[in-house]
Amino acid sequence: MTYVDRLKALLIERSVQLGDFTLASGAKSDYYIDARRTTMCAEGQFLVGHVAYEAIRSSGLSPTHVGGLTMGADPIAYAIAHRSSLEGNPIDGFAVRKREKDHGTGQRIEGGLPPDGRVLMVEDTMTTGHSTLQAVEVVRTHGAEIIGVLTLVNRSEAAATLYEQQGLRLISIFTGAELLEEARESRS
Predict the structure, then answer these.
(1) What topology does CATH give the domain 45-174?
(2) Going by fewer Cβ within 10 Å, which terminus of the chain is more open, N or C?
């Protein structure tokens, strides 16, 4: 079994839930993907690091940093950073807070992202892409160059168009449809 196959199986086992749900976008859905149940477990960290790092290498993009809106992006960014270091090609992680801290330095970006960083934004599960777009704006205001967006699970093809309009390429590891189909098959 490949790392991609095992990661897909782990997402289906741990993260895909069937039922009636309201998504962050406000849309109704008959399934929900809580990717953190996979990305925060030990095996998930290992697999996400391998699979996402290889997707980045295959894309031809050369980020210096990976990160996104906390909390969904955090374990993915850290898994990529860890794997990249093991591969001898370090890509540092960072996190974008939903709002500025009201103490200390009042930062919105954590992790030492320099203004000249080349950034690949990451997300765990993307439906419309608008949440990540908020983080994109924060990072652009900081001065870093955003070279693309990577999502572990893309629930909608509309997100690719949204990012294309921003001049950004979207890399999707899995689609919501493929995970849903296999989850339904395995549970019937």
Answers:
(1) Rossmann fold (3.40.50)
(2) C
